[in-house]
Amino acid sequence: MGRGKIEIKRIENATNRQVTYSKRRNGIFKKAQELTVLCDAKVSLIMFSNTGKFHEFISPTTTTKKVFDQYQETLGIDLWKTHYERMQEHLRKLREINNKLRRDIRQRMGEDLDDLSMDELFVLEQRMDSALELIRDRKYHVIKTQTETCKKKVKNLEERHGDLLLEYEAKYEDPQYGLVENEGDYESAIALANGASNLYAFRLHHGHPPTNFHHGGGFGSHDLRLA
Questions:
Q1: What is the pTM of this model?
Q2: In what residue span(s) does the MADS-box domain sit (predicted)?
Q3: Roughly what angle, to the nearest 10 degrees, separates helices 118-173 and 81-108?
């Protein structure tokens, strides 16, 4: 039995559509290659899939540009003229915009003002006033932001300082760090030893002067008591 006739219409299933495109593209490329070899013809074949993927077949002895040039010469038309003219027009507009911007910059710097009328000078003055107002607003915004940031840093430092004071007072009042309350018989002092992490407290007898040293150069055991 022969294969049934396929209705020529768009294949709705995307997978089947891509498979059909790949198979028939390869068949067309094969026919173009056979035509090039058998008939010594110049063939240029360009294809784009629905996903925008580019495929091209070109005869080994030529290029796509040569085929286009020969096509233009045969028909007496210029395929690139319209595109070139559009590019030239776009370039002309860009140059006009660039020249206008440069002239505007010079005028804002006080140059190239001789050809301006009174109305044009008035408009230029208004534009410069508006620009100055925007610049001032931006400057004040930056100053305000920097000031608020500085205030936040100062506040954080003050809070940190308060926390350190509370922590120090808590350690100062904690008996673990050697502060012993007296009834007035002894005087107490706090000293640092072995770094800032260890606090020691010592008490001196009220009736003994601090110059009472042993021959070894230190306090006696009855003069110094560690908490």
A1: 0.36
A2: 1-61
A3: 70
